Amino acid sequence: MKVGVLQFFGWRDRSVPLEDVYERAMARIEIMDQTGYDAVWLAEHHFTGYSVCPSVHVMAAHVAARTRNLRIGTAVTLAAFYHPLRIAEEVALLDVLTGGRINWGAGRGFDPREFAIFDVPADESADRFREAVEIVLAAWKNEKLDFDGRFHQYEGVEVLPKPVQKPHPPTWVAASSEGAIEWAATKGLSILMDPHSPHAEIARKLALYRDQLTQGGYSFAGREIPMGRLVAVAETDDEAEAVARRGAQWTAGAYINKQVLGHLRGGDADEDLDPVDHYLRDVVIHGSPERVVDQLQRLEEEVPLSYLLLSPLSEKTFGLFTDRVLPHVL
After folding, report:
1. pLDDT at residue 259 above 80?
2. What backbone phi and psi angles, to 5 degrees, belong to 96?
3. Residue 170: inside a domain, yes or no?
């Protein structure tokens, strides 16, 4: 199993300077660089303390200066909010400056506030995202770009620099809905799977993706499919459950509403559904180090989970995972 970290920059306590939030994250990332982690994946969010990282490209440059071995992923570039040629230029520049350590993940997003504030009509967001992904990949692969789309048209544009990795950095698209999964499969694109869906729903969506990919004439074999999972580790199961509950309360309060929860669960959410109970029962992996190893090994077989995109719910979780879980799952 490969393991990367889905890095949020949560500002839970506003009495703590935001600079301290960033520095703690960098200290964690420097530890990752010297242990067995494959990549840090940086999460982009706007207008919320859930994760104060409005530019994953700027953050990636900072991470690159503090690391030597770790791959650096975006999870995700919210592509509908950007000019696609700006994305192509910035990510290619990152790839050049890091010597080819960039993983590009792109997504549509699903927060209605972001769409409204960035003046992106929600009913256009999926098409804008998909067109942006196609433009970025074409800009990287071709000496000059010709493109005639719904939102963008180009003729003979030389987009520079080109990435170091050929034909381009490894690319994933975030896919939590069936429509997104089916579109990615028809294009032969690999997918990133979200940290909020239940384990069983992740397994079902992965099976759908594999089937759709095969029907489109693409191979599933050898693909890395990072799966985001919230994790709480403590010395005892009871302590870990308390960490998981606090993390679920923060996530539900800061970011998840009933509409979003229903989308992630694969259907309409029950009006009486408690988001915290949903996370504790179906989403968060929590327990002692030994119990978490057992859960991951079970998911490795059942989902199957081959690339864990770890989202630690506490600093202690990260430390215990690194020291006492990671060696048993790599």
Report:
1. no
2. -65, -50
3. yes
